[in-house]
Amino acid sequence: MNPACKLQLKNVSKLFRTARGGTVQALAPVDLDIPAHRFVTIIGPSGCGKSTLFNIISGLTEPSTGEILVDGKTVNGTSGIVGYMLQKDLLLPWRTILDNVILGMEIRGVPKREAKAKALPLLRKYGLGGFEHSYPSQISGGMRQRAALLRTILYDKDIILLDEPFGALDAQTRALMQEWLLDLWDDFQKTILFITHDLEEAIYLSDEVYIMSARPGSIKAHLHIDLERPRKPTIVTSKRFVELKEEALRILSAEALKAYDQEKAG
Amino acid sequence: MSMTEKAVIAERPVAVRKRETAGKSSWIQKEQRPLNGTIVQISRFLVFAAIVALWEIGATLGWINSFFWSKPSDIAATWWIIVQNGSAWSDTLFTFRSTIAGFVIGTLAGAVIGLTFWWSRLYAQTIEPFVIMFEAMPKLALAPIIVLIFGIGLASKVAMAVAITIVITILTTYNGMKSVDKDLVRMIYTLGATRWQVFSKVVVPWTIPSIISALRINIGLALTGAIVGEYIGSQHGLGRLIFYAGQTYEISLIWAGILNLSILSMVLYLAITWVEKKLLKGFMH
User: Fold this and answer.
1) Can you list the domains of chain B with their CATH numbers?
2) Beta-carbon neighbour count of residue B113 at 10 Å?
3) Is A77 within a domain?
4) CB 3.0-4.6 Å disulfide test: which of A249, B3, B232, B253 passes with B245?
5) Phi, psi (deg, nearest 5) at residue A231
6) pTM metric for this prediction
7) Preceding peptide of B205 cis, ω within 30°
8) Which of A61, A103, A137 to mutate to test binding with chain B, by most B CBs within 10 Å of its CB?
9) Do B115 and B177 meet the contact criterion of CB atoms below 8 Å apart?
10) How many domains is chain A partitioned into structurally?
């Protein structure tokens, strides 16, 4: 085993039983090696099993075959090993932002006062200063999403899964959030696994982009993004960026077509 | 008569508030000017005064059989007597105590039982039809048995109030709990929560507003239970006062007891509405 590998998937697949007693293959066997501190994005047509993959890695679902290894140890079906953030912010409406952000630490048994002391400077640093004692319904969608992300970061796991975290935000907020995420990633040295539908977002943020095939999902292609960091937002117009985007688009559109045909047939 | 008036006037603020909020949300008032509050109050008072006056005059002139209907002046006089000799207070206090005890026990126990349903689907689905069966049963019919079991003291009234509030609270709690956002549960599991932590940090807080919404219904139900318990067998309470007055044909005393009961019911309702508002405000944002 490669010691630098933070997260490994070996032959991981998922079969779902349908109500009629049949089975549907949601995920074809997937192998992935993800080194520590990388920003890795998974992109693919809708319904390709990206979210199933994340549910398996986070331990919410057991895989039908295969193994998930974190730091070389099998963690199949164990939740709480990785940080996981969904598209919805899922803040608890009856808790203040501060109390929401410390939820992960609270569950781990960190004393509340200590957890708050740790969270407060971060809230201020990442643009939530002055809103610590607000409730989720009192702040904007972008701020809620930031709070949810901080909660995930403060849960303090080396690996963080982000399932379309900015999917519901408007374009401007989304651009800001991307910058902000890169800052966080840089500051906390996490390994990030990111799902998105947005190819530009994928290339802009990532070190590696994996393209998944239509259902049953499997890794179709791998793009190494060799753009230098730190990246400026204007990088999207550079020659290399456009080349990478073209290559990805070619693969993606073929898969999207296949997914469309499947949907028509099925 | 003046006392009767005061008691009914006390009800007005609630009625006014309700009407106003209903007006704001459900009508688009285009060319209607808002009504002057004082005029509304005066016209309500006039309606009330007219009813009381008609009753009094009708009973005096023999249009209404005053043997069954009594008349406002007699009722007020009787009410004044029981207020002065203290029996109004002690009976009201007795009914108040059993109502509150039954309300608190029934609501708390119902909420706790409802919440236990989260722990096992097999358990919840096995028990649910029995709870619904018990809810469908008219629980007032249990009164004779409950009085036999618990005696004619406070305990049987409390038991009646509990029987009548507990089931509806279980069902309200269970339904509120079933609506818990599955994604919130998933989220807290990914933070490594144990089942107990999922329960205490997501499921219980999620369900609390449903439980709070049961309070206002429960206070009325608890009072009904306590009164029926007193009808069947008791030495104290407003229910016993009314029942006793009925058996001895003291019609004014029946009405005086009902008047007292209405005041108690209104005070309880207003108090619970206030508590409910405070609780929800502290909870929902």
Assistant:
1) 1-69 (no CATH), 76-283 (1.10.3720.10)
2) 17
3) yes
4) B253
5) -100, 140
6) 0.80
7) no
8) A103
9) yes
10) 1
Q: Whole-angstrom Cα distance, residue B16 to residue B33? A: 17
Domain assignment present for A15: yes
Whole-angstrom distance, CA of residue A184 vs CA of residue B13: 55
Residue B5 CB partners (closer than 8 Å, separation 6+): B48, B49, B52
**Which amino acid is it at B246?**
G
Residue A2: its pLDDT value, please?
Answer: 54
For chain B, the distance separating the N- and C-terminal CA atoms, rounded to the nearest angstrom, is: 46
User: Does the residue A106 lie in any domain?
Assistant: no
Residues of chain B falling short of pLDDT 70: 1-31, 284-285
Least CB-CB distance to A104: which of B186, B191, B202? B191
Q: Could you give the dihedral angle defined by the CA atoms of residues B82, B86, B88 and B89, in that order, rounded to the nearest 10 degrees?
A: 160
Chain A closest CA to B164's CA: distance in Å? 31
pLDDT at B2: 43
- Distance, CA of B267 to CA of B269 (rounded, Å): 5
Rounded mean pLDDT for each run of 10 residues along chain A, 266 residues in total:
77 88 88 93 85 92 93 90 90 95 93 94 90 93 91 91 89 90 90 92 94 86 91 90 93 80 73
What per-residue confidence (pLDDT) applies to B27?
52
Query: Which is it for the CA torsion B181, B184, B190, B192, positive or negative?
Result: negative
pLDDT in the model for residue B10: 41
Give CA–CA dist A119/A147, Å, rounded: 11
Cα–Cα–Cα angle for A23, A25, A29, rounded to 5 degrees: 140
Task: Report cis status (omega within 30 of 0) of the bond before A216.
Answer: yes
Return the pLDDT at A118: 92
This model of the complex carries an ipTM of 0.85
Per the domain annotation, does A95 fall within a domain?
A: no
CATH number assigned to the domain comprising residue A68 = 3.40.50.300
Distance from CA of B198 to the nearest CA of A (A): 10
Q: Chain B: which residues have CB within 8 Å of chain A?
A: 181, 183-184, 186-193, 197, 201-202, 205, 283-285
